[in-house]
Amino acid sequence: MAARGERGVRRVLDKLAASVNSGQYYEAHQMYRTLYFRYLSQKKYADLLNLLHEGATLLLQRDQQGSGADLAILLLDVLTKSETQPCEEWIEKVANIFELMSPTIPERETFLTNAVKWSMDSNKKGHPLLHKKIAEVYWREKKYTAAHRHFLHSSDGSAYATMLIELHTTKGLKSEIDLFIAQAVLQFLSLRNIQMATETFNKYTGSHPTIKNDRGPPYLFPLLNFLWFLLRAIEQKHAIQFKILRNWYAISIKRDPNYSVYLDNIGRIWFGIEIPHDPKNANSMFGGLLKSIIGEVADSSDEEEYMGHNASAPDLD
Length: 317
What we know:
- The chain is mainly alpha-helical.
- It contains 16 helices and no strands.
- The radius of gyration is 24 Å and the shape is elongated.
- α10 (177-190) packs antiparallel against α11 (194-207).
């Protein structure tokens, strides 16, 4: 019986190859699904994963978007059912399939949502490498807002800073050079990620053609000096210095009203400073900001609006 089953699978595979070579993509898609159910019932996960990856890639490369996306979504379902752990190999494959999908099909967002869920660990944020790969896809597509959302949950501050430099030098105003990095650093610190905040800041200030300063202050832009001292204060757990910095650079901080809300939260997270506020205003405002940072990372409904909520914030798109 087993031998007969193997011969049956081989015949389907041979037919599948013939259908693909002759451009009979609908038939090919149906045969992929036939093999999917057969392998799944036998729990032949390794064979099934390879089959679905090959099929999704092949169909998408031939612009069979609906059929390719269907197999791609099945692939993620099998990755989950087989308890395949996120690793560089499969994250790379998933990101490549995502890039092959047309941004115009709704299945792309479904695929991304499922990919992030598959890669999640206990912190429910998705694997940093997957976020980096997806951010880089959006970056190549010049969808800077979406790229920003995923870079925030990656672990590559250098790549993120490089994108910010490209974005500012191609689309930003000269006067916004410090706003681009300020928002990023404050958001990372609000997410309790000082490593990404520091790496992004250092790369941005060290590589931006108008700044090119990797030694630290003095910078020509006061807000950059503030950020540099802020990162040092957090590393040294120096609460008094944090308070002094907020007073010294009050004028620069007022350039964007969101900065004060971020800094209130940073003070609470890193220094245990509780600042009394009108709960209706402050809590709702920061809640909205934090939701826009963390959000549902694959939720596209507000991606294009994000960071456009304030006139003084740089526009990413």
